[in-house]
Amino acid sequence: MDAMSQTAFPVTLPCGYYDSRTGQVYNTATVVTMTGATRKAVADPQVRQSAARVLDTVLLHCVKTVGPYPVTQDVVDGMTLPDRDTLVAKIREASMGPLAHVTGDCSECGARGLSVEYDFRTLTFTGPVLDAQDIRDVFGKKFQCFPLNLPKHNVKAIFRYPVGSDQHKIANIIRKNPIEAMLILMRSTVVEWNGIPVNEVSPLLFEQLPVNVLDDLNVAFRDALPGPDFRAETTCTECGAAVDIDVDASDFIFPLAPKTRRK
Ligand SMILES: [Zn+2]
Questions:
Q1: Ligand 1 center–CA 239 separation, angstroms
Q2: Based on the domain organization, do 219 and 234 belong to the same domain?
Q3: Is residue 159 part of a domain?
Q4: Strand, helix or coil at 28?
Q5: Can you tell me the distance from the alpha carbon of 178 to that of 184, in angstroms, rounded to the nearest whole number?
Q6: Residue 259: its pLDDT value, please?
Q7: How far is the CA of 237 from the centre of ligand 1 (A)?
Q8: How far is the CA of 247 from the centre of ligand 1 (A)?
Q9: What is the pLDDT of residue 56?
Q10: CA-based, 20 to 30 A from 189: which of 3, 64, 145, 238?
Q11: Entry pTM
Q12: Rounded to the nearest whole angstrom, what is the distance from the C-alpha of residue 109 to the centroid of ligand 1?
């Protein structure tokens, strides 16, 4: 037996992979751990430029099957963000152990590069969700959808779960302007707004919303996505505030190799 062979293990997907050909939703994927080949592939500067490409690369290398299908670029493009994040978290933990160092900025004083020790064993996952079985036609393509209601603001909306190709659209904007990225993501995934179908919704709908509504919507949208909650709690070393650091699944893939080893 090959001592170096990788053991495949199953991962439950919170949304599930929707197969438009059969109308089936598959909730299980089989994955293996990362190897030197995965490291080499994500170290490519073209890949490292974009968080979405880092995730695609890890998924293409390490996910063997989704439901009955082998994994292709089409499959990872069509996978929901909650499923992509869940897979990368499980692959990362199985490959590199439960601890990770991540850095982020303080939302209170703007201090940069706060370092947080992250423990995958404390990571909470939500799902599988039944919402993801609500399949709707959006501009001729079928997507898994969920309701998003803000009774306080008289908002009743339907969104589709963002997928890999949506993540590619915002990958280069998210670090520079996270609000712009959020607006693009919401505009591309809204399916119905207070009964108005997406093809009649103004392209500037979210730009025109009062900020208090937009802020509540932003929080509700994030809370509606199942899968891992990657936020890490820490105390800012500059201002002392207790803050949540936003962590992206791709942050866990780096650093590629420790520059120095602690003795
Ligand atoms: Zn601070």
A1: 4
A2: no
A3: yes
A4: strand
A5: 10
A6: 42
A7: 7
A8: 17
A9: 97
A10: 64
A11: 0.91
A12: 4
How many distinct structural domains can be found in the chain? 2
In CATH, what number is assigned to the domain containing residue 201? Answer: 3.30.2220
- Measure 233 CA to ligand 1 centroid, in angstroms: 12
Distance 115 CA to ligand 1 centre (A): 12
Show Cβ contacts of residue 145 under 8 Å, excluding neighbours closer than 6 positions. Answer: 131, 134, 135, 136, 158, 159, 160, 161, 191
| Ligand 1 geometric centre to CA of 228 (Å) | 25
Same domain, 148 and 172: yes
CA of 106 to the centre of ligand 1 (A): 5
For residues 116 and 244, state if they share a domain. yes
Q: Across residues 107-121, what is the average pLDDT? A: 90
Average pLDDT, the chain: 91
The answer to whether residue 3 is domain-embedded is: no
Q: 29 near 63, Cβ under 8 Å? A: yes
Q: Tell me, yes or no, whether 207 and 249 share the same domain.
A: no
Quote the ligand 1 centre to 136 CA distance (angstroms): 43
> In this structure, what are the phi and psi dihedrals at residue 168, rounded to the nearest 5 degrees?
-60, -40
How far is the CA of 251 from the CAs of 62, 73, 118, 154, 203, in angstroms?
Answer: 17, 21, 11, 37, 31
The mean pLDDT value for 3-27 works out to: 89
Quickly state the pLDDT bin for 262 (edges 50, 70, 90). very low
For residue 97, the CA-to-ligand 1 centroid distance in Å is 29
Tell how far the Cα of 246 is from the centroid of ligand 1, in angstroms. 14
Q: What's the rounded mean pLDDT across residues 179-194?
A: 95
Q: Are residues 212 and 247 in the same domain?
A: no
The whole-number pLDDT of residue 257 equals 43
pLDDT at residue number 255 = 60
| Cα(215) to centroid(ligand 1), Å | 21
Find the domain containing 26 and state its range. Answer: 9-126+228-253
Q: Are residues 119 and 236 in the same domain?
A: yes
Coil, helix or strand for 248?
Answer: coil
